[in-house]
Amino acid sequence: MKKKINYLILLLTTIFIVGCTSVEDASITDGKTESQEVTTVNTNEDTEKEETTNSVDDEPAAEETSTQPDNELFPGYKLIEVDGGDLSGYREPNVVVDIGFGDREYWAFTNEYGQLVRVIADEIILQDDRNEPVLSSGRYYSDEAKVPGVVSDVLDEGHVIADSLGGVSNAYNITPQDSALNRHGDQAYMEEVIRKAGGATHFEAIITYPNNQTQIPSSYKYTYTLMGNEIVDEFDNVNPEVVNESTGSTRSEPSDSTSSNTNGDISSVDTNGNGQVTIKEAKDAGFSMPITSDHWLYPYMDDRDNDGMVGE
């Protein structure tokens, strides 16, 4: 009986020891699991920190990209938009502005002094008064930008590209221009030639100033292509009649190309009296080149390439 009791005590002791061991193992296992879970959480936190760090690092790059100029067409110039009828005479320096009415792309450039120095267009598209909102005056707008200098009695608000050629009236297409030059001189003649040709291509205007303090140009140089011929017109921003009088030459109105000389009297132009007019004689008489086929002088001149123009 005593042996049975001892055996029973030994058995219970063994069971108790085994049970304690299992509890300790379970505790250890739970501890490892908790440790692993903590490690996992820490790892995720590290990953999140890395992702956060990368996001922060990426932000400056994104900002740098967004501050890059969006003007790849004309590097070095800030591309801005100005309403075509804006009457302000102020121009921003070093900018480029589209001065073509509607869908036309005529680009005007200013220098560091805000002076309008260059205008270019791949194609000059004439005004379409049937499909565009043209006023009874033949203009898109009732007035032009008030560029400093246009208040003068002898200066017009002169378009670099006229309304009739599709140009707008803001300060990026207006310069103070001698009234006679603008209305009857080389500027008017150049515009008329382009209109009669139905437009032009490869157009460029270079505008020069006497100093960097004024907005009144001293001269203009226009280059454009008509019917495959490149034409260059250069003239000063002065009254052509005054210049002709000072040089002793008589100036006929350049815009009189639509008129006709019914008597065919070319004696004032044909200095050698041979019945023909040379380019030099025409220029000396005050006419601008080219002389087109609808000009009254054309029949007396030599159009060697038969393109309807002499002196291009």
Helicity level, as a percent range? 25-40%
Total number of domains: 2
SSE order: HEEEEEEHHEEEHHEE
Q: How do the strands line up in the largest sheet?
A: 1-2-3-4-7-8-9
Overall, the morphology is elongated
Q: Could you explain the architecture of this structure?
A:
The chain has 312 residues and is of the alpha+beta class. It has two domains: 1-68; 78-247, 3-Layer(aba) Sandwich (Extracellular Endonuclease, Chain A), CATH 3.40.570.10. It is 30% helix and 19% strand. A seven-stranded mixed sheet has the order 1-2-3-4-7-8-9, with helices on one face. A hairpin with a 5-residue loop joins strand 3 (106-110) and strand 4. The longest helix has 65 residues, at 2-66. It is elongated and about 160 Å long. The protein starts with a helix and ends with a strand. Residues 26-69 and 250-263 have low confidence and may be disordered.
Summarize, please.
The chain is α+β, with helices and mostly antiparallel strands and 312 residues long. Helix content is 30%, strand content 19%. A 7-stranded mixed β-sheet has the order 1-2-3-4-7-8-9, covered by helices on one side. Strands 5-6 form a two-stranded antiparallel ribbon. Strands 10-11 form a two-stranded antiparallel ribbon.
